[in-house]
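User: Fold this, then the next.

Assistant: Folding the first:
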Amino acid sequence: MKNFTVSTPKSIKLDKKIIHSIVLELQKKLSFTIESLNINFVTSDLMIEINKKHLNHDFDTDIITFNYSGSNSNLDGEIFISITQAIDNSIKFNVNLDKELIRLIIHGILHLLGYDDQKIPDKKKMKVEEDKLTESLSKNYNNILIEYDY
């Protein structure tokens, strides 16, 4: 897929072909184009550093999305996903890790498409779309995370 990359540190090994397939399927379902999109799977340390630098928060979070475009249909942005938080979420919410990783990718894409989760009505709308897409896509993809050296 043109203008789309998946980045990881050496400690995280993912099946990047699956992630490309997920984004391609989302592109078809949600009708967007990609000017430039980078999905970064990162460690907790890096996520905390990003959080401190850009959001003035001193903690790990599961996802941070940066939208560099004014467009909600031609994506130009970056998504940062904490593998540690994804693993913690999968345990906390009793879902398999693949489903949680898919949910986080969808969550980031939805943010880039203009969805917001700051106010309760917006959060509900985003959650409905996120759940629908997660259920649809998680049936087809598994074994996304190959290896993670803590």
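Now the next one, as you asked:
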Amino acid sequence: AFGFTLAIFSYTYGHISGAHLNPAVTFALALNNTIKRAHVIFYWIAQFAGAILAAWLLHTIATVLGGTLEGGATTGLLTEPQPVFATVVEAILTFFLVNTILHTALPGKEGKFGGWAVGITYALVILGGASLTGASVNPARTLGIAIFAGPSLTSVYTYVIYVFGPLIGATLAILVYNFLNDIDD
């Protein structure tokens, strides 16, 4: 579901904003000078506000239905006992997502199937990492839900795993992308 949603959003909003709904993707595109660094803060405000609003809506619906919002979708087997390894996993998963975006969705590289490539990669990232870390690969997704459910906003590991992990993965994707483009030139 996440992968199909991202693919559809890529096609629907890609021509307007690039459809990067993820602060780690925005960070990577700023590092690559694909977007202006001065615009990053505006993207991040929109991304975090959207995540908080979505989490609030889910929390409200769950409360009305007599349930609770669980943080299980943003945590995994490694979150508590192995935070360093969880950070590495989030970085690797984010690397794959950002790598796909760089090679298929940037201006001049996008094709008719770029959005599907990004969506399928996102689906595979989630399938591969969900049990380990929740495969958030998106700081906004994690922090938005953390306001209403786990992981805790007071835990330093929330930030190390789910903010720094994706930012490290995005940075590595840019380094590899630039290296490969230098070889190609």
